[in-house]
Amino acid sequence: MTADHIYSDLGFSDDFEVRQKALEELSRKINSVSLDTREALSSFVPSADSYQKRVIEALDHTIRLVAPAGSGKTQTIINRVITRIQNGVSPRRILVLTFDTSAAGSLRTKLSEQSLNVTTQLRDIRISTLNSFGYGLLRDYVPLEYKNVIEDTRQRSIIHEGRDELKRISPDRSAVLPTNLENRFYREFYSLLKNQLFDPRNLHAQHVADFILERTDVSEVFFSHLNNDRSMIKRVIEALIWLFKAYDLALKRDNLIDFDDQKLRAHISLRDAPQLLASVQSQFAEVIIDEFQDINTLDFEFIKALAAKSSLMVTGDDDQAIYGFRGCSPDYLIDLENHLGRQVVSYELQINYRCPRNVVEHADRLIRNNRRRIPKNPIAHNNEASEIKVIKSFTAGLEAKAIVAFIRRVLRSNKKLKYADFAVLYRTNAQSLPLQIEFILNDIPYYVRKQDNILYNDALAKLLAVLRVKQALSESRIPKVGDQVLTIQAYFRFVNSIQVEKLEKLFRKTDNFAQAISSSTFLSILPKAKESKLVSSLQECLEAPNLLKTLDVLAKRFNGLKGMIGSLEDVINEKVPLGELYDIAASFKGSIPDFIETIERALERARISHAGEDEKAGVGLLTYFRAKGLQWHTVILTTCNEGVIPHKKAPTEDERRLFYVAMTRASSNLVISYLKSICKNAVSPSRFIAEAGLS
After folding, report:
1. Could you give the CA distance from residue 583 to residue 430 in angstroms, rounded to a whole number?
2. Cβ neighbours of residue 179 under 8 Å, at least 6 residues apart?
3. What's the per-residue H, E or C state across 109-173?
4. N or C: which end of the chain has fewer CB within 10 A?
């Protein structure tokens, strides 16, 4: 079936209005956004403390278990399951649901280990992610909806197909959409809609429009360039609704569903078939939900339906709810009784077995500043105090050097520790670049997610190419062909592979870069260059007297060096273009050759050593988000400054929870570092340092 055919009957929804109140609020949001861009402490594995025993033995119909970091939640769940079975509940009638595969695997493994110590048959207990459970329901009861889950590459292709088709049938609507959005951003946007219970097969246009306008991160991406023009905003929303529906049509054409459809289609199927719902509900005597603080509307409604006739225990910690940008909310845990419409008995696991006494105390002091939370009374099991240091550095480059020196000093003082016992955590992914360079030059193994690995940093490759072209021309040398092409790609955000091939041929034929980019051949390859300021911008770059001035020009003029928005998280993390490089460059006293030589040397060593891939033996470089659920002997929090954490674009209470999560990853030592300047501007330490009583 051709793309034209499946989209031919798909019209544009215009049966909604851009409400005046929403428009005024959108204007306020956009205008308020800034325009400038020792030894490890002894561990303890409890069998069950008094707080845990209360939960394990509880007979209440609906239980809320508040389980802060390191409180033995997983073991408590396992002990409760075993106790329930020993008290006569069939293993087949217990359902344990989690939200990621690793958590489900961990529960299965620990339950299997526990089965060696008890005579109870545990193999029949159902432990699953919510997605997997939904997919199983489709397989067993709704065969028409049971289809293969689409792979990432095919999903991006379908999204791209929809965008191309929109451009063909409605160029005016396509033209008002932002151009700096990757296909994976649309994937996350569609996921956000589905997890808010928007079904592309049965959409209420006004509800979708209201939702898009109310979400700060989404509205900023789609509307900030429209100067609050009501008609243009309406056309954007029409385009988005059409794209969402077109995406679902393409999935149906290819006989596929996506990751979120496993839950959405299962929930809708149960909702629309009361007899089927009753049959599924009757299968379970007890439903247990882990990590309940990170659920969205779809998750909650699905769980509520499944557990309507069974006993229910939800576990979580609202202080660790950090995925608001994905549509998750701790409100379901905080106001569980109101949301469920049934009486709830609450329990708290008070003893923290992970963190030393002073980390528990300072983290608790921090999080008590949040108003919207469940009050808690944490108790540290280990009364030894850890080493908590607050240090300041003048720049990110010097901070990275200080971190390297600190790690080496700790390792020298304790031979039992290894690099894998350390983690360096940061708020935004860009903060890893100075750290990676310093780690590579000092032969320190580390791991970082692939997208942030210095070896795959496209912006850095383009930057170095521009600097090499500048250096070659200043020395009357002919720049390398590859560097000339990358320089053009650094200026224009979009240069396709065919254009790249033609540019390579052009630059091979001429020895004069300036003449080449002014030639009719060049303009025929890149017609958009005719209306651009490419030549004047390059001239300004070439005339810049030093490295930092050159970076200033590049940040202002070269769109190809500005990051593409690939996820909802990127919206929050958006940074000043090349900002992370300013502080590195500052240490070279304006010398472009020295900067190029140092970065190239780091890249070469990185290629040889496969830098950033040593997850078993290396220092962990992770964002606060990706550190959740993990722990290390020594945790170092970098660039803890106002505007970074709390991030200027994110709600303060969300950010405070994020910093709380970062602090509580430390099982022994905690280091909090802040800068005196960022991107040549004086900055203040994060308010969270003082709120934690560490200033």
Report:
1. 12
2. 493, 494
3. HHHHHHHHHCCCCCCCCEEEEHHHHHHHHHHHHCHHHCCEECCHHHHHHHHHHHHHHHHHHCHHH
4. N
Q: What angle do CA 8, 10, 12 make, to 5 degrees?
A: 130
b/e for 193-208, b at 16 or more Cβ within 10 A? Answer: bbbebbbbeebebeeb
Rounded mean pLDDT of the chain? 87
Q: Are strands 681-682 and 677-678 parallel, antiparallel or unpaired?
A: antiparallel
Q: Counting beta carbons within 10 angstroms of the beta carbon of residue 451, is it exposed (0 to 12), middle (13 to 18) or buried (19 or more)?
A: exposed
Checking phi first, is residue 590 left (phi over 0); if not, alpha (psi -120 to 50) or beta? left
pLDDT on residue 200: 96
Q: Is 610 helix (H, G, I), strand (E, B) or coil?
A: coil
Phi-psi region of 428 (alpha: psi -120 to 50; beta: other; left: phi over 0): beta
Give the per-residue pLDDT at 483.
95
C-alpha 606/C-alpha 436 separation (Å) is 9
Residues 353 and 381: beta-carbon distance below 8 Å: yes
This prediction has a pTM of 0.82
Q: What is the per-residue pLDDT across 198-232, written as a single tens digit (0 to 9) for each?
A: 999 999 999 999 999 988 878 888 888 888 888 99
Residues whose CB falls within 8 Å of the CB of residue 222, separated by 6 or more in sequence, listed in order: 177, 178, 212, 236, 240
Residue 392 belongs to what H/E stretch?
A: strand 388-393
Largest CA distance in the chain: 86
Cβ neighbours, 10 Å, residue 475: 8
Contacts of 7 (CB under 8 A, 6+ apart): 165, 169, 246, 249
Q: Give the ranges where 170-229 is alpha helix by DSSP (H).
A: 171-175, 183-195, 205-214, 216-223
Give the model's pLDDT for residue 134.
97
Entry field: residues in the chain: 695
Give 631: exposed, middle or buried? Use CB within 10 Å, 0-12, 13-18, 19+.
middle
Cβ contact 621:448 at 8 Å: yes
Residue 216 per-residue DSSP state:
H
**CB-based burial of residue 591 (10 Å sphere; 0-12 exposed, 13-18 middle, 19+ buried)?**
middle
- Smallest Cα–Cα separation from 633: which of 468, 348, 413? 413
Distance CA 391, CA 388 (A): 10
Q: Of 105, 103, 125, 122, nearest to 114 (Cα)?
A: 122
The 10s digit of each residue's pLDDT in 584-608 is 676 666 688 888 998 898 888 888 8
Task: Map residue 380 onto helix, strand or coil.
Answer: strand
